[in-house]
Specification:
74% of the residues lie in helices and 0% in strands. The chain has helices spanning 7-35, 48-71. It starts with 6 loop residues before the first helix and ends with a helix. The mean pLDDT is 90.
Length: 72
């Protein structure tokens, strides 16, 4: 059995975590904007195009990290 915290899998886990954080954060922002809930002291409107772009980028990064863990 491979060590769970070896250096090779640790990098793949960090990449997966980064991608998952991008997906979760931007999905949450899009859902809250759709419900009409804004953060306190927010200066501007949500840029939905940017949020969707970062969500897709996060999804690609998360898939890359997951594939690296599985193949690795």
């Amino acid at each position: 059995m491979a060590d769970f915290f070896d250096l090779d899998s640790l990098l793949a886990q960090l990449i997966l975590a980064l991608g998952a954080a991008l997906v979760a954060g931007n999905a949450y922002a899009l859902v809250m904007a759709r419900r009409g809930i804004r953060p306190k002291n927010a200066a501007g409107d949500l840029r939905k195009g940017r949020a969707w772009f970062l969500l897709v980028v996060g999804l690609v990064i998360a898939i890359w990290g997951l594939a690296s863990l599985i193949s690795g």
